[in-house]
Design a protein that fits this description.
The complex is a heterodimer. By secondary structure, chain A is an all-alpha fold. Chain A is about 80% helix and about 0% strand. The longest helix of chain B is centred in the last third of the chain and has 17 residues. Chain B is α/β, with parallel strands linked by helices. Chain B is globular and about 55 Å long. Classes of the chains: A mainly alpha, B alpha/beta. At the A-B interface, α7 and α8 of A face β6 and α2 of B.
Chain lengths: ~270, ~260
């Protein structure tokens, strides 16, 4: 017994460390395997000609190489990213205070909510023709439509966040002597942060969905434009390069938001 | 008149599906300075409404609620409130929660820290000062809430079924701890509960309420010495008072018809 005990003591933390690395490494390994398997299936399907006109991974990769070399991929990505960033950021920056005001002041809510609920049922994509007629075919209509998409997703989330703040938390602050202003800044804002971050993630997805559609009309560059042009030339490789780029960019931005969410709302009790 | 809290013919109604629900139909109650009063009664007797009006979170329809002889107009740091649902700010650590009220009172950082740590020590959460509420058990959360109320040094403590959500063992521990802190720094306590044992164990006086409309049914003095101990909890005298309170809570109709 006396010999075993110290051995156990050194073994325990070692084991723990191993378990921890296993826990973080495993999903990465599995994710990598899934990626490789997916490409393999794609390659087989393309090689056997099971789906007509499906390009092979190799062809797409070499096309990506040329598009990187001649700079089109970079300029397309930059153009789409810029539109998403401006439209999305504007949407969030306007939506959060509007949502807060709606949640905090019943009068504001009564005035604004019918409009928001009405426009929310219209998909932003359906507004593209209208935006073109009203705002022309420059950058403005594209950014405006992306802005609307992210605004709608975010405003409802932050409004709901304020409405759902636990009344006892507000009462607890009030009995400790907090004024309305303090309650808003120190209770309502932090308590609704999780809602807002969810709204921001949904808004980001909506923004990417919208940018591609927006670029189908009268753009000179951008990933959506590239796909449209490639389709008229029947250039399947280029379509795939743009598609994959959009997917990767969307995924990376979503992960960044998720990271921020973990940082900012780690205090939440999870069921 | 040296009562700390006075309810004078307090009436409170709530609209309910076209009709009005009378939560309190004319309540008179005086609580002396440094007295520990518990309120028991069936649900719907308005006991929580009573507390919430003393806290300044609700206003009476008619009658008045006085603290130190002055009508209550809104919440204030002179009255600490402890809620059944703990109501800790989940994004703040234990210490930050306890410092919340001190910050509002513009207490300088150093003194704030000292007073917060003293309150945290008083409820035995010293080790967990930097922990987030999500890592605490229900009993620890409620102790943190008590520390938060104590830190601002209120003269009156209003407690709304604070131990109602806890298991029986933790509840007894917190009752003892509450009495211990109360005997160290005496304050006026108005304590709402639905637990007859708890009501008798803690109080100088037990107020038994009746429902429909909410009113005071009986006030029963608890002539047991402090500090209250397990011995007292098991004494025949305790049992006698407990039975008396029990009967007046659960057999209100018979008592009324017999009288």
């Amino acid at each position: 017994m006396a010999v075993i005990t110290p051995l156990d003591k050194t073994a325990a933390p070692e084991q723990q460390r191993q378990q921890q690395t296993r826990r973080t490494v495993r999903p990465l390994v599995l994710g990598g395997l899934a990626l490789v398997a997916g490409i393999a299936v794609w390659a087989v399907v393309a090689a056997l000609g099971l789906v007509e006109n499906l390009p092979t991974p190799a062809a797409v990769a070499s096309k990506a190489g040329t598009m990187i070399a001649d700079g089109t991929l970079a300029s397309d990505t930059a153009a789409s990213l810029r539109r998403v960033f401006i439209g999305y950021a504007l949407g969030v920056v306007v939506a959060v205070p509007v949502g807060f005001l709606m949640g905090w002041y019943p009068a504001v809510r009564a005035v604004v909510e019918p409009y928001i609920q009405f426009f929310r049922t219209i998909p932003p994509l359906a507004l593209i023709p209208l935006a073109v007629v009203l705002l022309g075919i420059g950058e403005v209509p594209k950014i405006a439509v992306i802005y609307l998409a992210s605004f709608m997703a975010c405003v409802v989330a932050s409004f709901q966040g304020v409405v759902d703040v636990d009344k006892t938390l507000i009462n607890a602050a009030r009995v400790l002597g907090a004024s309305d202003r303090v309650i808003f800044a120190k209770v309502v804002v932090p308590a609704s942060t999780p809602f807002i971050l969810v709204g921001m993630r949904i808004g980001l997805g909506a923004s990417w969905a919208t940018v591609v559609a927006a670029e189908l009309i009268g753009a000179q560059e951008g990933l959506g434009y590239r796909m449209q042009k490639a389709a008229t030339w029947f250039d399947m490789d280029a379509i795939f390069v743009s598609l994959i780029t959009i997917g990767v960019l969307g995924l990376v931005m979503d992960r960044l938001l998720l990271l921020a969410e973990r940082r900012l709302t780690g205090w939440q009790e999870r069921r | 008149m040296n009562s700390k809290i006075s309810f004078r013919d307090v009436v409170k109604t709530f609209p309910m599906k076209g009709a009005t629900f009378t939560a309190l139909g004319g309540v008179d109650l005086d609580i002396a300075d440094r007295e520990f009063v518990t309120v028991v009664g069936p649900s719907g007797c308005g006991k929580s409404t009573l507390m919430s009006m003393a806290a300044g979170l609700q206003e009476p329809d008619s009658g008045s609620v006085l603290v130190d002889g002055k009508p209550v107009s809104g919440p204030g740091p002179d009255r600490g409130v402890i809620f059944q649902q703990y109501a800790l700010f989940p994004w703040l650590t234990v210490r930050q929660n306890v410092e919340f009220g001190l910050k509002l009172a513009a207490v300088p950082a150093e003194e704030r820290r000292r007073r917060a740590d003293a309150a945290i020590g008083l409820v035995g959460l010293g080790e967990f000062a930097d922990a987030l509420p999500k890592t605490l058990s229900g009993g620890m959360k409620q102790r943190c809430a008590i520390a938060r109320a104590y830190a601002v040094d209120p003269q009156v403590l209003l407690m709304d079924e604070p131990f109602g959500a806890l298991d029986a063992l933790t509840r007894v521990q917190l009752q003892d701890q509450l009495l211990e802190t109360w005997s160290q720094e005496k304050r006026t306590v108005l304590f709402i509960t639905h637990d007859v044992d708890e009501a008798v164990y803690l109080a100088n006086r037990v107020v038994v309420m009746a429902a429909g409309p909410g009113r005071i049914h009986r006030v029963i003095d608890v002539d047991l010495p402090y500090p209250r101990t397990e011995e007292i909890r098991l004494s025949p005298e305790f049992r006698r008072i407990r039975n008396e309170v029990w009967t007046s809570v659960y057999h209100q109709d018979e008592a009324a018809s017999a009288a």
